[in-house]
Amino acid sequence: MANPLADCVSSLRSSNHLLGNSISILDSSVNDFSRLAKVLQTTKHFELLPSSALSAAQSQLLSSLVPEFNNLLLRVETHLDRLERREQALIARCELLDGRLSLTGEDGEAMREDGGLGRKSLAGEGDGSREALKLKLKQLRAKKERLGYTVERLGLQAQQKERQLRLSVAAQ
Which is nearest to 121 in space by CA: 107, 102, 104? Predict the structure, then answer.
């Protein structure tokens, strides 16, 4: 009879040991439970909206953006008009200077030192004044060329600003 009890005691000890191991495993698992709950928590990345709310938001956005676009377009048109008028003024000035340079008649008209048109008598003044006139003519031609480049540069800048504006409006 002692033998069956010894087997029962050993089985009870084995069950007790197995139960202790199970408790330690469960204890280590439960200690990490708060972290696991946070890791396994699902988050909403996208929220589904009804189409009426979406269309209302779109119309509100459109109503706020349209006046801003109109204002920006008006400002751009004003600036482009200003640049166009400046370009026309520079072209007119260039043509005026070109006309002044080409005006040398048989009466001996030439440019004065201050840039205005007048009559100078070339007889009796010698080669010194003729050289001065040639130098002045050369300077005026260089100035005309610079003005032409300025007009061309302003035109290119206006075109570039138009392109940038179109790109920025298209990007928005």
Answer: 107
Partners of residue 119 on adjacent β-strands: 109
d(CA 71, CA 65): 10
- Checking if the pLDDT of 52 tops 90, the result is yes
Map tokens 């003005």 to a residue.
147
Can you state the percent helix, strand and coil of the chain, rounding each to 5?
Answer: 80, 5, 20
Three-state secondary structure call for residue 123: coil
94: tokens are 């260039």
Tell me the CA distances in angstroms from 34 to 28, 38, 63, 133, 167, one per residue in order: 12, 6, 48, 97, 52
- Residue pair 106/100 in contact by the 8 Å Cβ criterion: no
Residue with tokens 């377009």: 73
Whether this model's pTM surpasses 0.70 = no
pLDDT(51) > 80 = yes
